Amino acid sequence: MKFLCVDCDSQMSFAERQLPGDGTLAATFKCPKCGRVVAMLTNPMETQLVSSLGVEIGGRTVPEQPLQTIRSAVATGREDAFDDGSREQGAGSRTSWSADALQRLDRVPNFVRGMVKRIYADYAKERGIAEITPAVMDTARSELGLEGM
Amino acid sequence: MRTYHDLTDPDRSGLAQQIGAQRQRVAERLAGVGRIVAVMSGKGGVGKSYVTAHLARALARAGKPTGVLDADLNGPTIPRLLEVSRAPLTAHSAHVEPMVGLDGVRCISMALLLEDGAPLAFRGPSAESFVWRGAMEATALREFLGDVEWGTLDTLLLDLPPGMQRYVELCDILGTPPAVLTVTIPTPESRDAVRRAMRAAVDRGSALLGVVENMVGGELRGSAADELASEFGTPVIGRVPFHPSANAWDQIADQVSRAPRTAHRAS
User: Fold this and answer.
1) Is A114 on the interface with B (CB under 8 A)?
2) Distance, in angstroms, between B122 CA and closest chain A CA?
């Protein structure tokens, strides 16, 4: 998918992706010559059709997690379906979680919680963030497009 | 106005590259699998899952590491047939470990992930869900193939649901059509449905390993297996009575293990 600024005859650059949480998606593209910005807005069905392929508009920002689409999309999953390897996330990890961040994580359905926790931890580790707080989670959600999880 | 191919800057979304990466992931994961066999019939109720589970156990007992991927996402039964526990699946950063059932058969199934008695339901807009549901199921199948650490297997059996849709998805995901083992019951009705499935498999380029006739020796009348075998030039590799002995499965396993090994698509 590419966008063309017809006036400038210039290919527009991907700028930002937003998932407002209502099933829709917004992606903005900017013309490098004139600076014009356009937004591509998809309805829930269009958004779902793309995500059901296991791909991400705007490119993948984090490595694909195992069974990611299943864990993100199955609504009838068992709470205790996965053991997400606490050893990988706990011992040896230099990233800690604030109490309110953990409280917020507890609100994520268990079926997908371990995977989401790992994504946040990887995000923090890659950026040298020592403690994951709700503010860090907000930033990561926005940057990584985790609103659907 | 210039069109898509006239624009030379990279496509940031790279959807084609993302799909390519998914295929690569599947190819790498299955590199240690010697033989991929789809168990199918095109007809429901002929005992595909039953045959799959017992064939897998016979192969494993013969010292051939075997896995079963339960591709019947909406009616999964393999974990019960293999007496797989409901313990959580161990997930790592890049893979999920399969569960292990009777005789050491490795297994993945949607039944292991769903709430007891719950149907497979996806989050998403309910209106016109048929538009995306098929794609979602194909993605689930692709994740089972690419994200489960099967390890080194002699044979990976894929228990397909009735119909042909999952088989077509499987061919697309694998890039190479899998070998096919067909299951029928003796009746003419089963013969007609299985014939369509076998024709589709041949048309896609799958090797036919043979026909297993299930539920023989009872009330069911007909010669479906012989007719199909003759028509498609493939052997009847087993006839399974209602109460088969272990020996019956061993004979089928012996035939399957003689099949050529899967030529994996170059990754």
Assistant:
1) yes
2) 4
Rounded to a whole number of angstroms, the distance from the CA of B71 to the nearest CA of chain A is 14
Interface predicted TM-score (ipTM) of this complex, two decimals? 0.90
Interface membership of B121 toward A (CB under 8 Å): yes
**CA distance from start to end of chain A:** 24
B197-243 confidence digits (pLDDT tens): 999 999 999 999 999 999 998 888 899 999 999 999 999 999 999 98
The predicted-structure confidence for A2-56, as pLDDT tens digits, reads as follows 899 999 999 998 888 887 878 888 889 999 999 999 999 998 888 888 888 888 7
Number of domains in chain B: 1
Domain housing B47? 17-257
Which residue intervals of chain A are DSSP H helices?
Answer: 44-51, 68-73, 86-89, 99-106, 110-126, 134-144
In chain A, positions 71-90, which contact chain B (CB-CB < 8 Å)? 72-85, 88
Closest residue in B to A10 (Cα) is B7
C-alpha dist (Å) from residue B64 to B127, B187, B257, B263: 47, 33, 9, 18
Domain coordinates of chain A in residue numbers?
1-59, 61-149
Q: Which residues of B touch A149 (CB under 8 A)?
A: none
Query: Is A15's Cβ below 8 Å from some Cβ in B?
Result: no
The answer to whether residue B264 sits within a structural domain is: no
Q: What is the CATH number of the domain that holds B106?
A: 3.40.50.300
Top CATH class, A1-59: mainly beta
In this structure, what token pair is assigned to residue B209?
Answer: 């390993």
